[in-house]
Design goal:
Rossmann fold, 5 strands, 7 helices, alpha/beta, five-stranded parallel sheet
């Protein structure tokens, strides 16, 4: 059974967006089923110029494939606190989970603020992310806030390859690392 079947078609979903390439596939695949609005919230991205490139590329995507988009601000100090002591963790390790949790917690909080009944993320398109962990964290944050989590593994069905294809087709910036300064190494 597809976990998305638990959420009625047409439901408003606030979709956390980490970058335009993941959103290029994620937004398209989920808006066939839901009323999707994007939420770009990534205080983990380093350096600032990289953050700017990813945000501008997401805004470019929004212009080319129109969808409502909110941009979250701040959170850098909270991200530093969440990552403290886990600097040497590998990609997909405890630091990654803390980072995902922080961003999904803010997305769930924003969904509540906007009166949206569900939230999700495009993080599971990336081969750098553990979809099982991302979905577990999303379910936990959804339970904590009372908002449904639109659980998905967007890598399935060639989602990653499709995101690359769409990104190239639309001329979107494609980054070479997850985003934080520790993954930059």
């Amino acid at each position: 059974m597809n976990p998305l079947d638990d959420i009625p078609r047409g439901t408003e979903v606030l979709l956390h967006i980490c970058c335009a390439p993941d959103a290029a596939y994620g937004v398209r695949s989920l808006r066939d089923r839901f009323d999707v609005a994007g939420f770009f919230y990534n205080p983990n991205i380093h350096p600032r110029e990289e953050f700017r490139k990813r945000l501008l590329s997401t805004l470019d995507l929004q212009e080319k494939v129109p969808f409502p988009l909110l941009v979250g601000n701040g959170g850098e100090a909270a991200w530093e606190d969440a990552a403290r002591g886990m600097e040497d963790e590998p990609e997909r390790g405890r630091r990654c989970e803390a980072c995902v949790r922080m961003r999904l917690r803010e997305t769930a909080r924003k969904a509540v603020e906007l009166g949206m009944p569900a939230f999700g993320t495009v993080l599971t398109v990336s081969p750098k992310k553990d979809a099982a962990m991302v979905n577990r964290v999303g379910r936990e944050e959804g339970a904590r806030t009372g908002v449904r989590f639109a659980e998905a593994d967007l890598k399935k069905g060639n989602g990653t390859l499709e995101s690359v294809r769409i990104s190239k087709e639309l001329g979107l910036y494609r980054q070479r690392y997850c985003g934080c300064r520790y993954s930059f190494r």
